[in-house]
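cron nightly-structures :: item 1 of 1
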Amino acid sequence: MTFGRLLLVAFISTSLINSMARAERVGYQFTGTLEVPLGGTPTWFGAPLTTSRPLTGTFAYDTTTAGDNGAPGERIYHQSISGGYSLDVAFENSHIEVEADEYDVVVRNNYKSGGPNAPPVDEFAISYLYYTQYNMTPKRLRVNGTEWSGNTAIMQFSLTWDQGTFPGPGDPDPTEPKLTADRPATANAGLDGYSGSSSLVPHIHVTGVTAIEPLAGDYNRNGKIDQNDYIEWRKAFGHSEPPFLYADGNHDGIVDGADYTVWRKAMGRSSPLAATIPEPGSLSAVIWLVLLVWSKARWQRGARQH
C-alpha cells in the first residue's frame, strides 16, 4: 500500500471515530466463535452445538440515554432499539439469528467484580438476560424472526480495560461512568462473551470489534437494511429533537416521510417486505379504502336480507 493510501485510510478511520463521538446513536460489530462448553453438548436456541461455530454480533445504543446508578463505579443504560442487539451463528446448513429489542449497556469504571485478589477494571458490557426462574423477564428476543418461548435466554458481551483507562467515578468528571459513542473503540480492550438458552451456557471467543459505518436507511445501526429500521423510523416520526435524529435519513433536521423514502429505496422495491408496507402518505387512503369496502359489503348483506 502506498503512503498516500495509508494517509487516506488513516483519515477515513479518524473521521469515522470523530463523527461517532458526536453521534446520538452508534453501532458496533464483533466477530468470533461460539464454543462448546465443558460438561456437555447444549442446544443453542434449538440447534445442537456439537462443535465451535463462527459468529457475528452487533450492538447499538443511544448516547442520550439516561442511566441508572448501580453498584459503586457502575451505571446502567437501558436500550430500546428494534433488533439493536443481535447474534448470528453459522451452522452446517443454516444460520440462526437472535435479536433483542430491549437490553442494557453497563459502564463500569474502576470496578471490582472478580475474586478477592482480582484488580479493579474499567468495563463496557452489553447484556440481555431472560430468566423466568429469577423473574428477569425483559421483552422476549426473536430467533430467526420468531419470538423465543423458552425460559432462558442469555446474550452477554463485554470489553474490559486496565484500571485507570477512564476517569474514576466522579473524578475529575462528575458524569463518569458515562456512555460515550467511541468507548468500545478504545484500544487494548479484553474481549469476552457468552450466550445460551439453557443452564449450560456456551462461551463466545471474540476476535475483534469494529464500528459500523451508518448506511442510508439503517436506523437501528446494525449494518443492514431490514424491517427493524422501519420500526425505528415509526418511533421517531415527527420528531426533530437530537435523540430521534437517528432516523433522519436525509439530514434535514426532522424525521418525516422523506426519511421513509430513504429507507424504502435502500430496502429495494423488489423486496417482498417493502412491497407490503404502505407509503406514509397513503396510510389514510388505505384506511378509507378498507372502511369503504366494509360498508359496501354490509349494505349488500342488508339488501339481501330484505
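cron nightly-structures :: done
The radius of gyration is 23 Å.
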